[in-house]
Predict the structure of RRM domain-containing protein.
Amino acid sequence: MQSLGRGGCSYRLPLWSLLSGRVFPRCSATKVFVGGLSYDTNEIVLRDAFQQLGDIIEAKVVCDHVSGKSKGYGFIRFDSETAAAEALKKMDGQLLDGRNIRVQYPKRQNGRHS
């Protein structure tokens, strides 16, 4: 496997994909992590807060699988890298549901992308 980095995102490439010329990204620069969410923030509120920055493919608030309650963070996937970059620039540190949110590109954890 080869790892290549581009725009804060890494690619894990099997040798055969390098030989065939095909690249399969494991994540893209269109996805952003949103931390510091209020436990009352749901996916509709999250989507509404970021909608003016570009078309959103998916907005997800991560919840505990047992209790169903929010873990206080989520992810947004935009249709373009430009929209994601705007979200980082304009939304990081902003107030949402009474909390200052953190917006950044997802980090790799436990051998997988967030």
Summary: The chain is about 20% helix and 40% strand. Residues 7 and 74 are 20 Å apart (CA to CA). The longest strand covers residues 70-78.
